[in-house]
Amino acid sequence: MPDNKRVRDLTLVDLGQQTLIIGCDSTGAVGPKSGDQLQVSGELLGRMIAVVPIMEVMASGALPVAIIDTLSVEMHPTGENILNGIKKSIEEAGLPLSLINGSTEENFPTSQTGMGVTVVGVAERNDLRIGSSVDGDIVYLVGKPLVGAEVLDKPRLVAGIKTLRYLLEVTEIHEILPVGSKGVDYELKLLAITAGLSFEYLLGADKVDMQKSAGPATCVLATGEREAERYLKELHLPVTPIAILKPDITF
């Protein structure tokens, strides 16, 4: 039976020379229905929620091979609009739309939107980037932690799929970790632990709300050499060096 383990927000299934990477995200009370607490279009909702697991899986070094949507709404019109948003995120990631499968709620009428997206990816063992940070790496925060209506109001501060694809091509960047609802500080600690390292905050860290939710992964942590900063500046996004990775001296 294949060995599996939980690493950060991902499930890793060891298949020998390859590893199956599974990520997911969900939301409720956000959407176009009368009972939703935050009113957004179905298309925008689908786009935002699909971004999170797509980015998490791709950041690990895996190639998505299946994207599953579980929509707690009717197919027409709400589900169809959500699917249009999911498809836009898939296309932005440079992936084929044939990866999509899923289901909707056709038995009962709903007054509030709920949905989930699961992404399954495959990586060659040597291509995995999880835990690839090294002693001396600078941890950069790219983008800003935003949540709720802020995501709609400040799109130029959001590091999305296009940002991730760019970072994956920069040789000087070792590891990329999308920040989720638990905030920058939480993800930074996980990143260091996974690499078997500790960290020291830099002066730039005091410019960031380290505890704030980043909603649908509006920012990412990128680790790498100091030379990497010049490539990050080409993104035209906020880039803040927040920590330096150091050997773990705990016993």
Automatic annotation (TrEMBL):
Gene3D superfamilies: PurM-like, N-terminal domain (3.30.1330.10). InterPro entries: PurM-like_N, PurM-like_N_sf. It comes from the Bacteria. Pfam families: AIRS (PF00586). Residues 34-122 form the PurM-like N-terminal domain. This is AIR synthase related protein. It comes from Metallumcola ferriviriculae.
